[in-house]
Amino acid sequence: xxxxxxxxxxxxxxxxxxxxxxxxxxxxxxxxxxxxxxxxxxxxxxxxxxxxxxxxxxxxxxxxxxxxxxxxxxxxxxxxxxxxxxxxxxxxxxxxxxxxxxxxxxxxxxxxxxxxxxxxxxxxxxxxxxxxxxxxxxxxxxxxxxxxxxxxxxxx
Length: 156
Known about the structure:
The protein is mainly α. It has one domain. The protein contains eight helices and two strands; from the N terminus they run ββαααααααα. It has helices spanning 18-26, 28-36, 45-54, 57-75, 86-91, 93-104, 111-122, 137-147, and strands at 6-9, 12-15. A two-stranded antiparallel sheet has the order 1-2. Helix 4 (57-75) runs antiparallel to helix 6 and helix 7 packs antiparallel against helix 8. It is globular and about 50 Å long.
C-alpha cells in the first residue's frame, strides 16, 4: 500500500496529487531555476513537489550519471551535434568529480544544490555549451558543491 505524500507550504499541509507531480515535472526547468537561486521550497506547492523529487537519492544518482556522461562525451572527438566547451570541461574535471560525489551522498541534501547542478548541466547558454557566456564554470561548480553540503539547512 502506498502512503500519501504530504507537501507543506505556507497554506498548510496538503496531500500531493498526481496533477501536482505532473506539473512539477512539466515545469521542472523553471522550478529548478527558482530553487537554484534560493527560492524556498516551501513557498509554493509546485516548488515543494519539485524539491522533494529532485533531492531523492535515485534522482540525484541519475543526475550524477548525467554529469559522468558529460565528461565521457567531452573526451571524445568533437561531434557537430554536441557543442561542448571541451577545454573548460576538461579543466573542471576534478570539480565535476567532486560534484558527482556530493550528489551520491546518501544523506539528505538541500534542493538548492541539486537544482544548481541540474541547471548548470542543462543550460544551453551556460559555460558547458556556450563559449561567450560570462559565467565561470569553476565558480558555478563550487557554488553547487557548497549548496549540496548535507550540513546546510535543507530549507533556505
